[in-house]
Amino acid sequence: MNIVSFFAGAGGLDLGFEQAGFNVIWANEYDKDIWETYEKNHPNTTFDKRSIVDIPADEVPDCDGIIGGPPCQSWSAAGAARGIQDKRGQLFYDFIRILEAKQPKFFLAENVSGMLIGKHSTALDGIKKLLKNAGAGYDLSFQMLNAADYNVPQDRKRVFFIGIRKDLNFKYEFPTETFPKITLESAIGDLDKKAIPALEFNNTNGKRCPVPNHEYMIGGFSTMFMSRNRVRNWDEQSFTIQAGGRHAPIHPQAPKMKLIEKDVRIFVPGKEHLYRRLSVRECARIQTFPNDFIFHYKKVAAGYKMIGNAVPVNLAKFLASSILQQLNAHKNSLIKKKKIKKSVVI
To answer: Carries keyword S-adenosyl-L-methionine (predicted)?
Structure first.
């Protein structure tokens, strides 16, 4: 099945769908810092670099599905949480505009769990209504998932909108299957002791990295960062991988940070040398990008941003596989009914 992707970023969602058997024929991403990474890792996909607001629907290829993650900063509970009042939040409407015009069999949209906070309830209800009524209409399924339950070694809660075109006469059911937790030891243990610090001003080491992208941001830690523990042990899962490198979790080689007073922690005295941020490659592993997926950037912050904004590949593959399975099951059911009906007539 052919699909198109909006707000593609580095392509974690796209890669998951490709691994599940879909063909991503066309993708769109406006951030120029991501272009090289997407194009080199998705060479068979036609890549559009315009803002979605400037893309006429008739220039988007016909397809079986539309996927994407409209920018999430506007909805983040950790940020300003301006939601639909922010221009970035309003890009959801352009996603719906394209959906209404193209009328694919299904769509998937992903966003942060901050969409669920009370102040966004009216906007969220409005988005759901627009998705349900797009064109001939869609049966909408909506649920928050934690990537930790789907072969992803981190706590990461995100909401998913999945719609099936009404004329197909079935509603997508989120799978109830989950998987055992994957630890940091399993995910990044083999990379231990190989990471190198970024160059001055957090410039990349480039090809000098012993493992591609295995370099970490240098520099101090904010009082906000030091307000709570940022270390998970080897036998635990990672904290959420964020888009900001300065907020990357600390490598599990370090002991958990010591509480001094409310909202104030320090690195354990005498162990300060163990406290480094996870590297770009370690964050990519935790987001379940494969080793041969190389991120291209000049500043390491751009690498962290690409990875932190991505949908974990394994979670994307799991959802894509379930969508494909349910579409095929419905198709086979219709074929069976037609055969039965034909035999009765005969």
So the answer is: yes
